[in-house]
Design a protein that fits this description.
Distance between the termini: 23 Å
CATH superfamily: P-loop containing nucleotide triphosphate hydrolases
Strand content: 5-15%
Radius of gyration: 15 Å
Number of helices: 8
Structural class: alpha/beta
Number of domains: 1
CATH topology: Rossmann fold
CATH architecture: 3-Layer(aba) Sandwich
CATH class: Alpha Beta
Mean pLDDT: 76
Order of helices and strands: HEHEHHHEHEHH
Shape: globular
Length: 162
């Protein structure tokens, strides 16, 4: 069995809904759900959230840990993987995750992401920088993506539902 044909990788900007989408798709397909933020937190080894890890390490050390986690991790067959929101801004991660399976980007218009970010500003960013960060990450996602996921993950499951 070709591992690449059984693994689906969901990328996108922070707060686009990657984890929710991947969890729904995995359940629908009967596949394992893997959240790379959770994998990163296991490598970090401290209790807390991605925000806690980012704040404790600082951006530079956080990005090094993120790259180390991604570049050493191996996907399992029949899985749906949600990537971290900033992962695709790293060229090595971008190139490496393309080898895992069917890669695609989940997208939402900026005004929706801005509403989601306004509840908890991403990694302490000043609101003026949100748009620049969003555009940078969208460009990275589109460069990486070979597939654009439909807005409803159950559309991908039609053949698997009886």
């Amino acid at each position: 069995m070709d591992l690449k044909s059984t693994v689906r990788v969901i990328g996108g900007v922070s707060r686009v809904g990657k984890s929710t989408y991947a969890r729904t798709l995995a359940a629908c397909l009967g596949h394992a759900y893997i959240d790379m933020d959770e994998q990163l937190l296991m490598v970090w080894g401290e209790a807390g959230s991605i925000r806690d890890c980012f704040n404790a390490l600082g951006e530079s050390a956080f990005r090094e840990l993120e790259a180390e986690t991604y570049l050493q991790w191996k996907p399992q067959p029949d899985s749906v993987i949600a990537l971290g929101g900033g992962a695709l801004c790293d060229r090595d991660i971008l190139k490496h995750t393309k080898t895992w399976g069917q890669c695609g980007v989940l997208w939402q218009p900026f005004h929706i992401i801005q509403q989601r970010w306004s509840h908890d500003a991403p990694m302490g960013l000043h609101p003026r920088l949100w748009y620049d960060t969003y555009i940078q990450r969208v460009r990275a996602c589109w460069a990486w993506s070979v597939y654009h996921w439909p807005h409803d993950p159950t559309e991908l499951c039609a053949d698997h539902i009886e």
